[in-house]
Design brief:
Layout (H helix, E strand, L loop, with lengths): L1 H10 L14 H7 L6 E5 L5 E6 L4 H10 L9
Antiparallel strand pairs: 1-2
């Protein structure tokens, strides 16, 4: 999943990806109800939870989810 997220962040404008080691940051696991790794947490610009997904998503699925949530995801030129 790390490679997919890295590629997604590098391919699209305005996308920020953070990877968090939950063993070192258990507060995040509690805050977002993480029970499975990987869990993807989609946050708005203010840090509010928009969506969470347990398991792997492809780059295409990531883009589709952001667009479904109302965000424009444009390819880097």
């Amino acid at each position: 999943m790390a490679r997919i997220l890295e590629g997604f962040e590098n391919s699209y404008k305005g996308v920020n990806v953070s990877k968090i080691n939950l063993m070192e940051n258990m507060d995040y696991a509690k805050k977002y109800g993480v029970r499975v790794v990987p869990t993807l947490v989609f946050l708005d610009p203010q840090g509010e939870l928009l969506y969470r997904h347990e398991g792997i998503m492809s780059s295409k699925e990531l883009r589709s989810k952001w667009e479904e949530l109302g965000y424009s995801v444009e390819k880097q030129e």
